[in-house]
Amino acid sequence: ALGYPAHAAGRDFGGALIPWPGPDGAQLVVGEMTSARQPNVFSSGRVHRYAWGPVGFVPGATFDGWPDHGGSDQAGADLASGDFDGDGFVDLAVLAREDDRPAVFDPAVYINPQDCPGARDRVGGVHVFRGLADGSLAAAPSFSWYGDDDGQRIERLAGGFDADGDGRDDL
Prior knowledge:
The chain is an all-beta fold. The protein has strands at about 15-20, 25-30, 45-55, 55-65, 75-80, 90-95, 125-130, 145.
């Protein structure tokens, strides 16, 4: 059985669901895009990782707080996996459908922050969490990409294929 971590209202738990290769067997990654990570912070969204255990799927890591993740982002609206950086470990891409691109990026967190000048409202963000050697995921995204035009949000993700023939999975 898959435990249900949300309240009865649903929180869109399972709206996005992908299998995940685990060191000890099958795992699932589940999106919950309209959950609230704090009181009065609505629809921020989160992502849960489950491992297969002796009595079914057992809750594991939850991803719901990283730089610039806030209310109404709808993180977990869609998910994709693949070895996007070519290091041999599976990475996780999380769509935050209603994410806003920040006006200023912290240079201690982001590379080339000057390449993304100016805030954009509700453009959506894709946040890629690197896979690690022990089968876990980095706690914060290693890469974030935001849509270009206000209100024209990103709707879906696809990954795990090599579209350009470079030997790495594409997103």
